[in-house]
Specification:
Helices cover 77% and strands 11% of the residues. Strand 1 and strand 2 form a beta hairpin. The chain has a two-stranded antiparallel sheet with strand order 1-2. By secondary structure, it is mainly alpha-helical. The relative contact order is 0.06.
């Protein structure tokens, strides 16, 4: 499985490198309400947009999963408490 992941990662890296080399033209990026302009390669603009989208998606998924993580913590605490209670009862019955 590790070999497959390494191969997929190498292919993806090669594709990103080929994309960057093929799209070196300069573009000017500006955000409308701000007076700033930034000139950078087209590849950088697209890869930066992908990175921002990836990070925003990760944050969104983390926020959505908050309730599930809280419920999992509660169930783990309950399981631990029940196991401790059972162990105490078994020790009491062994005496």
């Amino acid at each position: 499985m590790r070999l497959i992941n390494s191969i997929i990662g190498a292919v993806m890296a090669l594709l990103v490198i080929l994309f960057a080399v093929s799209n070196r033209e300069l573009v000017t990026v500006e955000l409308w309400p701000l007076p700033y302009q930034l000139s950078m390669g087209l590849y950088a603009v697209i890869l930066l947009a992908l990175l921002v989208g990836f990070i925003a998606g990760g944050i969104g998924m983390w926020l959505v999963g908050h309730g599930k993580r809280r419920e999992l913590r509660r169930l783990r605490r309950k399981t631990r408490d029940l196991e401790e209670s059972l162990a105490r009862q078994q020790m009491a019955s062994d005496k």
